[in-house]
Structure formats: C-alpha cells, structure tokens
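Bump. Still looking for Regulatory protein RecX structure tokens.
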Amino acid sequence: MKITKIEQQKNNKERVNVYIDDKFAFGLMIEIKYKYDLQENMEINEEYIEKVLREEELSKAKDQALKFLTYRQRSEKEIIDKLRKKGFEESIIDDTLNYLKKYKLVDDVEFAKAFMKDKINLNKFGPIRIKHELYKKGIDNTIIEKVLEENDNEDEYNRALNLAKKKLPSYKNDDKNAIYRKLGGFLQRKGYSYDCIFKVLKELVK
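Sorry for the wait, here they are.
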C-alpha cells in the first residue's frame, strides 16, 4: 500500500486527509502526520496504519478529557466514565488517564480536598454526607478517610450549631418533640454525626 495524497482539510487547517492507493483512508491531526513522518509516495502497511490511528484516537481522548477539566477539577472515575460514554477503548482511556496524572491534571487527593472545602463552605455538609458524595465520585476510601481527618470536630459542631440556629425559626409553631425530631432529621440529612447532632439539640432545644 502507498500513500498517494495528503491534503489539508478545508474546514480545519489543523487536520489532514490521507489517501492510500488513490482512495480516502482516514483523517488525522497534522502533528500526528509529522510525528509518524507520513509523506506522499510512502509505502505503508496495516500495522503502521493501526499505530497512527491509535495515536489519533488517543489525541481525541486527551482533548475530550481536557475539555471536561475546563470547568472544574474531576476525579479519576469521572474522567473514565466520561470517556467510556464517548466510546473510547479501555486502553485509550488508561493511556489518557496516565497522561493526565503525569502532568498532575488529575489528582484524587487534591480533588477530594477541594470537594470537601466546597461542600463545607457552600452546602454546609457534614462529614458523613461528604464521605458519601466522595464515594459516589469514585474516590478511594483510604483517600476519603485521610481527607476527612483534616476536618476538625470542633469546627463540625460549630457549623452544625450555626446551621441549626438558622433553621430553628422555621419550626416556631412546633412543640419541643417535633422540633427535636425535625431539626435532628435536617442535620442528619446534611451529614452530621449523631454525637454532633445530639450536642446541638441539647444546646438549642430546651
């Protein structure tokens, strides 16, 4: 087989069309053409074509992953799920993930820290809810435990107390037992521990 023509694509100057034996064979990024030194009148075999096309597929996967990372940090699982949804092969996904980790574009520890900070500051979540949310993001349990250890128990109590104080007026027409039950359920859904909730209720519901 011989490459008979290589031409720049009309709608994308960064891509070229490759013709083999006078028939269109495939399109690819121009840097891949240079990387594999593809030239007109060059003899080429199936093995080399597969190597070139795999590089093209890997380039597409990297682009997809980088676009996905534009908006916010992502966990490894989120990247994997996104690329699987786009139809990329597992070996391509593995290589893409290794590329992202090499340049520290994906780091589950840093992701977990940032995620915890956001959920504490923006959503006022407690550690149990944060742990559950991180687990859903595919974060390893050892990483979750390590990150949550940085969450001070006193800070947790103060956050729960302030949250409960703001919520308490909405129960002004309820009796003590109803307030105890509703406020406790509210804090539980937010992800605070039973010990923390008990202390808050003891402080506020008298």
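The two ends are 87 Å apart (CA to CA).

Edit: fixed formatting.
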